[in-house]
């Protein structure tokens, strides 16, 4: 009997996927109704990030994103170097 349910379900999925008209989702219907009276303005592909930089980075004129990427890179490389030094210390330590 479970095989018959699977076959019926597969048939229903194929039948639904083959429909000529597909009903939009509830969110799509809601947005269409909202935008009918008040259409949204143009939006760039990537909006400008909100200003979250520190006062120091704004004084130097550097963007917060570039300074944070360098800081994170230095932190990661520092941690890797510390682990390498620690493992070397453990291996060369006399017993």
Descriptive report:
With 95 residues, the protein is mainly α. It is built from four helices and no strands. The protein has helices spanning 2-17, 26-37, 55-60, 64-92. The mean pLDDT is 77.
Low-pLDDT runs of 5+ residues are: none
Tally of individual helices: 4
**Number of beta strands:** 0
Q: Biggest β-sheet: count, sense, barrel?
A: none
N-to-C order of helices and strands: HHHH
Rg (C-alpha, Å): 29 Å
Alpha-carbon distance between the two ends: 70 Å
Based on Cα principal axes, name the global outline.
Answer: flat
Structural category is mainly alpha
The overall average pLDDT, rounded, is 77
Considering DSSP H and I runs of 4 or more, what fraction of the residues is helical?
A: 55-70%
Beta-strand residue percentage: under 5%
Question: Which characteristics define this entry?
Answer:
single chain, 95 residues, mainly alpha, 4 helices, 66% helix, 0% strand
């Amino acid at each position: 009997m479970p095989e018959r349910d699977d076959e019926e379900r597969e048939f229903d999925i194929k039948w639904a996927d083959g429909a000529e008209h597909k009903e939009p989702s509830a969110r799509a219907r809601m947005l269409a109704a909202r935008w009918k009276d008040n259409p949204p303005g143009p939006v760039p592909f990537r909006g400008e990030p909100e200003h979250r930089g520190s006062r120091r980075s704004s004084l130097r004129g550097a963007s917060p994103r570039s300074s944070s990427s360098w800081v994170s890179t230095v932190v990661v490389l520092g941690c890797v170097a510390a682990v390498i030094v620690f493992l070397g210390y453990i291996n060369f330590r006399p017993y």
